[in-house]
Structure formats: C-alpha cells, structure tokens
C-alpha cells in the first residue's frame, strides 16, 4: 500500500499517458451504451471531460514546478523497435496553458452540444477523440509523435464538419481537409528531414534536436516547411481561406473547439519547433513574420466588416487576432513572446464564447445573415448581455484579457532590440489602426443583431431566452476572461521561465 501511495504522489506515475489516452479510451466505450439513450451518452461524455479536466489540474498543481524551465512529468517508452519510435511525453511552461485551455473548452463544448441528437454516439466519440489528439499534440516530446497527434485530430474535425454542418458542409469539409492535409505534407517532410540529418542514429527527440545545429541554408529550408504547415493551421494569410468556410458551416460546439484550440496548435508549433529548434532561421524570418502579422490584422479586420454571415464575421475576427500572436512570436523578446502566449489563451476563451453565443442565437432565430436580423435584444436579453460583454472583450476593452495580451505584444515590439526605431513606429501605428477597426466590425455586428425593430415587429417575435445550461457556459468562459484581464500573472507565471530559456539559450547566447 505504501508503494502504491508513493507511485501516485510522485512524478513516476504516468500522468500524461493517462491524460492523453483516457478520453479516446472512454469514448470507445460509448458504443456499449443504449442506442436511444441520448441523455445517458451526453452525461457520460460530460462526466469523462470533467474527470479528465480535474485529473489534469490535480497533476499539474501537485507535480509541476513553475520555477523549473525544464521538461517535467517526462515519460519515455520504446514503442516500435523496428525504427526506434518512442512514446515521449512531457510538459513545460509553454504547453501547460494550452493543455488546460483544451480541457476547459472541450468540457464546455460538450455541454454546448447538448441539443445534438442525430448520431449522438458518434458525435460524442469524435469530441473525445479530438480531446486526446489535441492534448497529445501539446505534450509530445518526439517529433514523429507530434506529427501523428497533429494528423489524428484532423479526422474527427472532418467528420464533425461533414455530418453536422450546414448546407455547404461537404464543400467546407473537403476544403478543410485539403488545406490541412496539404500543410501536413510539409510538416512530415520537415520532421523526417530534421530527424535524419547529420547522424548515423536518427533521432526525433525534442531535447536532442534543440541542441543540434544545421547549415544556414538547410535550416531555412526546414523552417519554410514547418512555417507552411503551421501557417495553414494558425491560419496566416494567404493560407487562411478554409477558416471562414469551415466556421460558417460547422455546428457551434465544433466551432468552439476550432477557434478555442485548433488554431492555437499552429501558433504553438511556431514557438515549439520554429523558434526552439531553428533559432537562426527564425531570426532571419522574424521581420517577415511581423510584416505578415501586421497585414493580417488590417486585412482580416477590414474583410470581417464586409461579411453578411454572422459566423464568418467572427471567423475573420479570429484571423485578425491571430496577427497579434504572429507579431509577438516575431518580436524575439520576453515581453512579445509572453504576450503571444497570453493572446493564445485569451483568444481561446473569447473566440469560443462568441461562436457559442452566435450558435445559441441561431438556434432561436434560424437566421445567419446579419442584414436579416435586428431587435433581438428585446426577445433574448440574457444572450444580448453576454454577447455584448464578450464583444467588448474581443475589441480589447481594458480589464479584459484581450486588452492585456495585445498591450504586452505592443510593448514587446516597441522594446525589441532587433529592429530600428522607424520600422517599429510604423508597425505600431498600423497595429493601432487594426485595433481601431476591431470595435468598428464588432460594434456593427452587435448593432445589426440586437438593435432596431425587424424581429420585434415580426408576428412571432417571442423567443425563449438563454436557459441555465447556456448561461452557465457563457459565464464559465467569461470568468477567466475577466480574471486574466485583472491578474494576467495567472497565465504569465506559467510560461515566464520557459520563455526566458528559449530566448537566452538560442538567440542571445
């Protein structure tokens, strides 16, 4: 009994393997539940998600040290003897935030999917399979395992989109899989190239590869390959066009997982692989990343204003906000990179919340085009209140997480020693213009939806307002948004030590 207790209370217990494998293993048992027991399936899936989130939180609270930048809870098992493939997992300050975000958003996404009744067993299994794939991506310490997890979570998204989407769901699903699978080809080539380069014993271990150097030309080739793969997923213009179509057609619970987690995997990959493994090439490409990020903020914000479809407007706002993450990564400063990581977490909450509220509005109105809406504030005041508050969070209202994240990215680019004064001033001015465009499309969206008289004058102008379940999901997402806005150190303390290690080990040595 004492030995069992010691295993559970030390780092030798395979916490990460259990956290990665549990959702899909439990999800595979859904097939044994009664076919018509939709409510039982929903409660079972929700309980699995809550248990997984509590288990993750417990493991990280008791076994993760914030002051240690090295890999913690590391696991390393030989998986396939034939070509030395290892099951390597581990977390550090860079991965702990996205993993906790994944658990939180997936749990609320499962609760948001309560109205789904068609093929309920398959739907909830796919949600749990995505959960495993995403956590596996964030905790992988082996490049080939990272690629497998990266690919694995695309399959559930494709099926969720093609079966539970809107009228153009097959077109959107096909476009999604073509873009993401096309990007994955570059990722696979980069993984194999780095693993096989310059060694009689090929290695795919992150720790070994982080200390390996390459000829500059070869490092640039590797960097471009990884950049294309992560640019599709982030997305970075001009590889972003799959995103509005996907969000426009997907069920809003799927949209929550896409906006809250899937897009953040691309940004995570940029830091984890492009910055950490290929620092010299990143120094060369960082000015271009900042230029592209600045263009993305302006372009996506301007395009968002012209969208008639509500979910497409929110999707373009996501593309715009991802521009701040790209700029933070390109700044090569402690402040900028911390701001980018904070924006990853912040936008994960805000994007998921806006898509959830857009979906609940559609459930009532059955309208997707903004010019057909109006007067909804009178019929659904609770949804109106939550939508207005979270729209303010999206436009970076002080006191909300978006404001702090974008402000830190601003400071990061201003204080960067890599760039001259005039380019920094120009980039800052253009970013400021982007921040001005954000309230224009955000407030315009709220005005078209909730103000005026269209629905109020309609014969069937009465709709049920937000119920306890929907209100719980909205408030659960709002609380961390306001919490991070008031006390951002809650997130920054997780990543601070790791960010310093990345920058000083690879850029300032």
Question: What would you say this structure looks like, in words?
Answer:
- By secondary structure, this protein is mainly alpha-helical.
- The chain has a domain at 286-455 and 464-508.
- 73% of the residues lie in helices and 3% in strands.
- The chain is built from 21 helices and 2 strands.
- The protein has a two-stranded antiparallel sheet.
- α2 (15-28) runs antiparallel to α3, α8 (169-196) crosses α11 and α14 packs parallel to α18.
- It starts with a helix and ends with a helix.
- Mean pLDDT is 83; it is low at 1-9.
Shape: globular
Helix content: over 70%
The N- to C-terminal Cα distance equals 49 Å
| Strand arrangement, major sheet | 1-2
| Biggest beta sheet attributes | 2 strands, antiparallel
- Give me the number of helical elements: 21
Mean pLDDT: 83
Got a strand count? 2
SSE order = HHHEEHHHHHHHHHHHHHHHHHH
Tell me the radius of gyration. 22 Å
Uncertain spans, ≥5 residues at pLDDT below 50? 1-9
Indicate the proportion of strand residues.
Answer: under 5%
The structure class reads: mainly alpha
Short synopsis of the structure:
The chain has about 500 residues and is mainly alpha-helical. Helix content is about 75%, strand content about 5%.
Name the descriptors.
single chain, 509 residues, mainly alpha, two-stranded antiparallel sheet, 21 helices, 2 strands
How do the strands and helices of this protein lay out in sequence?
Elements (H helix, E strand, L loop, with lengths): L1 H7 L6 H14 L9 H26 L8 E9 L4 E7 L1 H20 L7 H20 L3 H10 L1 H11 L4 H28 L9 H5 L5 H18 L8 H8 L2 H24 L3 H27 L4 H21 L3 H32 L10 H4 L1 H14 L6 H14 L6 H30 L17 H19 L2 H18 L3
Antiparallel strand pairs: 1-2
Helix pairs in contact: 2-3, 2-5, 3-4, 3-5, 4-5, 4-12, 4-15, 4-20, 4-21, 5-6, 5-7, 5-12, 6-8, 7-8, 8-10, 8-11, 10-12, 11-14, 12-14, 12-15, 13-14, 13-19, 14-15, 14-18, 14-19, 15-17, 15-18, 15-20, 15-21, 17-19, 17-20, 18-20
